[in-house]
Structure formats: C-alpha cells, structure tokens
Predict the 3D structure of the following.
Amino acid sequence: MDPRIPRLRRKLAAIPFQPLRSHSFGEEQHKFFPGPRLAEARVAAFEDDHDIVLPDAYRQFLRHVGGSGAAPYYGLMPLERCSLLVMNPQGGTGAARGFDGTELRAHERDLFLHIIEMGCTDVCVIAVTGPLTGRVLIGNSDGYWGPNVSSATDFLDWYERWLNHMSAGRDNRALELTSPRLRAHPDRHRMAPKV
C-alpha cells in the first residue's frame, strides 16, 4: 500500500460535512464520506472488461480509501459508472478540445476515464493511456473550455491537494487543479479585474 494512503484517510476524517458550505460545491452529494473500498477482484474485472490498466495511484485509492464519494465537485463516481473517453482532435487555432465516448476504436487514441462528476458537460478525467497516464484533467465534453492538466503527479497527490484546500476553507475553484505551465486554456473561473 502506498505510504500516502494513511495520511489521506486521516485528513479526510478531519473534514466535517457542513451543509451549504460555499467553498465546497457538490459536498452535499458525498458529505465528505468515501464509499466502500473496492475488492481487488472488482477492480481487476473492470480493467479486464475495458482492456485497460488503471493508473496505480488511482487504483490504490479505490482499493484502500474508497470506491466513490468524497472528492471535488459532486464526488468520485462509482467505478461501474465511469466511462472511457478520448480527447477530441484539435480544432482551429486556440480552440479548446472536448471529450467523447463514441470514438473508442481499438485504443487508436489516448484514453481517459471519467471519474468525477462536475455538472453539466464538465468532466474530471484521469488519463489511462498515453503520455499523460495517471494525471488528472478537467475540461468540458463539448470543448467550451479546457482541457487543463493537473500539475499533481498522480491521483493521490491531486486528492491530497483537494483535502488541504478543503481543510483551509478554500473554494474548489481556487484548487488550482492545473499548473500555469500546463494550462491549455485561460481559467474560465478567473474574473476580469474591475475598472
């Protein structure tokens, strides 16, 4: 087991649910409780059914912390609700790229697993193949903004950053899921300065 797991469990246990807490959009869905941990057989069956290998940090989270629940936005989706997506090809100059689940042809392109529900057509995914494997991205399925690649090296680092933000009372939007160097599109949440 990854040595970060016990620390994540302690941090998560220390964050109480507070109804209508403005800095934790979606918290009422998961109330800061993780869902049941997943058995090895269940995770392996998902991998076999989808012909993928889940990134190790995400896989360890499912096995040793929780298979759903407490996470940014509406929370970590149960594995059986997660779907594989591909990133749409680059459009015009500077155009954001969306995600699509209908073009999965024998792994011709890098695959991303939709793991967190953000609302509307916004998605939080983890790369399961390709050069970004293990990294968390947020974007919009329709390509209205993003995708933005997290500067966290893997899912456990990304999750711990969220826990640290929640314990400090910071908003999900201030989470800086992305690194300025990796940001693919201007932050849609940043407000223009008042004149």
Observations:
- The first strand starts at residue 83 and ends at 87.
- The first helix runs from residue 4 to 13.
